[in-house]
Amino acid sequence: MHLRQLAPEVWVGISAAWQTTHTICGRGGALVIDGPILPGEVAALAMHARPDVLIATHADWDHLLAPLAFPNADRRAGRATIARLGDEHDQIAEELAAWDRAHGGRPRGLPDWRLATQLDAPAVCGSPVGPLQIFPTSGHTHDGIAVLLSGPEILVAGDYLSPCEIPSVGPGAACADYLASLGRLEHMMHQARCVVPGHGWPIDAVRARTVLAEDRRYLEALADGAAPPLPRHAAAAPQQAQHRANLIVATGA
Ligand SMILES: [Zn+2]
């Protein structure tokens, strides 16, 4: 697993699967946001950090595995994430098990976040690394949150603003939700010098504003019923597949 230091006490790790990120904050790694995917990466994280607190940005399984390394750490998630897991835990657990089977691994149990401490959004809350500003971000899924680390001025965006993926508008969400979230993220970026996307290496504020503008243009066109060009990586088959899925969500077809 690769780690990159963003500030004296903030590191980002990136998984070999989907470039899913996790953010390690504080002396001794007191707070971990999201988590790695591969079993070896989970084991490596257990060597790097001693968190008191884990936060999940949303309930997609690839963001929920940090408790496999730290089963006793306090779990915190947005109210909507906990509610979604109340409805969909078994289905999300099966998605993880299917992924493990497909990749030759022993199926792992999904850590249970249903009794996690609820985070309100929007809200400011304390943490082992100082105040966190929490904002709701629906659109990719309906349950997302973004976390602004006020001290080091780092925005952990969840599955938005990825330099390696195009927007993913979730089934049941809407382009309007996603656009509203981009507006909130833009506002939060005034206080951030760096953005950690859910997938891909962190980007500086200038690059993040470019990604945001590209995604906004793309989603506004989708919302208008157009079939816009992909905002980036147009030749990549997975992004073309995501684009087709977005068109289906946008048109309700
Ligand atoms: Zn996701």
| Name given to the CATH architecture | 4-Layer Sandwich
Top CATH class: Alpha Beta
The CATH superfamily bears the name Ribonuclease Z/Hydroxyacylglutathione hydrolase-like
Largest sheet: 7 strands, mixed
The rounded distance between the terminal residues' Cα atoms is 40 Å
Total count of strands: 13
Q: Could you name the CATH topology?
A: Metallo-beta-lactamase, Chain A
Helix content: 25-40%
Number of helices: 5
Rg: 17 Å
Structural class: alpha/beta
Strand content: 15-25%
Q: Compute the average pLDDT.
A: 95
Approximate shape: globular
List all distinct small molecules, including ions and cofactors, that are bound in this structure.
zinc ion
With strands numbered from the N-terminus, the spatial order across the biggest sheet is: 1-2-3-4-5-6-7
The tally of structural domains comes to: 1
Order of helices and strands: EEEEHEEHEEEEEHEEHH
Poorly predicted regions are none
Summarize the structure.
This protein is an alpha/beta fold. It has helices at 39-48, 79-102, 175-188, 205-223, 237-251; strands at 2-7, 10-14, 21-25, 31-33, 53-56, 74-78, 117-119, 123-125, 132-137, 144-149, 154-158, 194-197, 203-204. It has one domain: Metallo-beta-lactamase, Chain A, CATH 3.60.15.
Commentary on this structure:
- The structure is a single chain.
- By secondary structure, this protein is an alpha/beta fold.
- It has helices spanning 39-48, 79-102, 175-188, 205-223, 237-251, and strands at residues 2-7, 10-14, 21-25, 31-33, 53-56, 74-78, 117-119, 123-125, 132-137, 144-149, 154-158, 194-197, 203-204.
- It has a single domain (2-251), classed as Ribonuclease Z/Hydroxyacylglutathione hydrolase-like (Metallo-beta-lactamase, Chain A, 4-Layer Sandwich).
- It has five helices and 13 strands.
- Strand 2 and strand 3 form a beta hairpin.
- The longest helix is centred in the middle third of the chain and has 24 residues, at 79-102.
- The mean pLDDT is 95.
- Bound molecules: zinc ion (ZN).
- Zinc ion (ZN) binds at residues 58, 60, 140-141, 159.
